[in-house]
Amino acid sequence: MSAQANKPSVLIVDDVPANIRLLADCLREDYAIRVATGGAEALALAGRGRPDIILLDVVMPDLDGYEVCRRLKADPKTADIPVIFVTANHAPEDEAHGLSLGAVDYVVKPVSPAVVRARVKNHLELRAAREALARQNEALKEAARLREDVDGIMRHDLKAPLTGIIGLPQIILDEGGLNESQAMFLRLIEENGYKMLSMINLSLDLFKIERGAYRLSPEPVELLALVRRLFVEFAALAGPRKLRCALTVDGREARPEDTAYLCGERLLLYSMLANCLKNALEASPPGGRVTVDVAPGEPTVLRVVNRGAAPARLRDRFFTKYATEGKPGGTGLGAYSARLIAETHGGSARMETSDEADCTVVTLTLPRGDLAVVTLTLPRGDLAVVGETPAGAPVMVCPAV
C-alpha cells in the first residue's frame, strides 16, 4: 500500500484552477488530494470515495457550494464528512448561512496556507475524536447490556437451588427427634432463606421497573404493621448507636389499634420503607431519633425524619442512581429504588433538608387506591369481629357480648 493511500483524503472543489493549485500545494505533503471543478462532480466523488474532509467553493457555474453542502448533509453516506467553505463571499450573513447548512468552518479568500492547514488539521482531529467517543459509547452500551443479561440470568438461576434449600428445614423438623436449639437453627435457616428469596424477587422486579416492563399487582397493605416490623429488624443497627425509632400517625404517637391501609405490592412497599428507614438511621448522629409519620388518606403520605442535614453534594441528586456520599460500602441504590417504587405505585418521593434545623425529611406520597371493605362476624357467645377492614387484611377480634 502506498504512503499516499495512508494519508487522510481532502476533496477540493473550485471552478478556478489557480485556486485549486494553491490549496493543493499547501496540503499535498500531509494529505491525499482529490479535485472537482463543479458541484455535480463533487457530489459524485464524495459519494464514491468518501473523503475525510471537503474544501468547498461557494460560487460555481452548475451547483453553488451552498446547494452542494445541503445535498451532502441530506445524504446519510456523506452527512458526517466535515465541510469547510473557502470563498470570496465575506459578508457575515454568508458565513452564517454556510454554517447553518452544516459546514464546520468558513475561510475567506485570499487564503493563508498556514490558516488552511491549521483548520483542516483541527477539524480532522475533532472528527476522529467524535468517532472514537462514539465507539466507546457503543462499547459501554454493549457492556451494560451484557451485564444486565448476566445479572438477570444469575437472579433467575439462583431461585431454583434456593427454593430447594428453603424446603429442607421443614422436612427435617417434621421427622422430629431434634432438641430445641437444633429446631431453632433450622427455623433460622428457613427464615433467612425466605429473606434471600424475597431479595432476589425484588431485584428482578426493580430490573423490570427500570425498563418500564413491570406490571403492578396491588393488594391491601397495612403500613403501620410494616413499619413496626422494620423497627424490630433494624434494632441491631439502631441499638449500638442508641438511636430511637418512633411511629406516629398524623403527628401523634401511634396507638396499637391504629391502622393505615393502601393498595400496593407488599414486598415493594416493604423494600421502599426499609431503604428510607435504613438511610435515616445511618445518617442520624448517635443518640438521635428517627420518626416515621403516616398520614392516612387520599393520598397517603409517609414522612421519614431524622436529625442531621444531608451532605450538600448529595442534595440535588439524592434520588438518582448510584448517588452516595460519606457512607463506606454505600451503593447509592436505596433512595433510587425507593423513588422508583413510589412512582410505580403512582406516587412520588422528595427530600428536604436544612442545615439550620439540622434535619432531613423524606416524603413518600402514595395513592390509597381502591380498598374493598368487608365485615366479618362470628357466632354470638364465641368471638365477634368489630370494625371494617379491607378484604384479605388482618382483623381485630374481641369476646362477643
Automatic annotation (TrEMBL):
It catalyses: ATP + protein L-histidine = ADP + protein N-phospho-L-histidine. Pfam families: HATPase_c, HisKA, Response_reg. Residues 153-370 form the Histidine kinase domain. Its EC number is 2.7.13.3. The modification 4-aspartylphosphate is found at D57. The lineage of its organism: Bacteria, Pseudomonadati, Thermodesulfobacteriota, Desulfovibrionia, Desulfovibrionales. SUPFAM superfamilies: ATPase domain of HSP90 chaperone/DNA topoisomerase II/histidine kinase, CheY-like, Homodimeric domain of signal transducing histidine kinase. The keyword Phosphoprotein applies. Residues 9-124 form the Response regulatory domain. It comes from the Bacteria. Gene3D superfamilies: 1.10.287.130, 3.40.50.2300, Histidine kinase-like ATPase, C-terminal domain (3.30.565.10). Keywords: Kinase, Phosphoprotein, Transferase. This is histidine kinase. InterPro entries: CheY-like_superfamily, HATPase_C_sf, HATPase_dom, His_kinase_dom, HisK_dim/P_dom, HisK_dim/P_sf, Sig_transdc_resp-reg_receiver. GO terms for molecular function: phosphorelay sensor kinase activity. It is an enzyme of class 2 (transferase).
